[in-house]
Here is the input.
Amino acid sequence: MHDTLIPLLLISAVEGRIPMNLVSPITGSNELLQLLAHQYRRQTFQFLDGQPDNTATMDELVGYIDSVADEVSLRTELFHVHLPKLNESNLIDWDSQSEMIRYYPNDLCEELLYVLETHTS
Here is the structure.
């Protein structure tokens, strides 16, 4: 049964019937801590978590992130480094064509963000 369930879940995710993160969720706290190590990725999760449907555009995210970098540098770093990394984790969907970002809430991620935020403020 397990051998047939995984391919069916993958097909459903690829066809958009279920979120990909339900098929291949982040595996544990070590992987998640590595993702949360950079402030831009933490701020991305925090911003998306507060948006309707946990969805935003790249422009909205760039406007939110607190950065000393100029907007072009920030956008480039998000586009080529941070959003692809988060997309690979299946915690977000990042469409580089439309520049739409959607976060799929994750209890462990939110708990770790809370701890990091309260101990670094």
The chain has seven helices and three strands. The two ends are 48 Å apart (CA to CA).
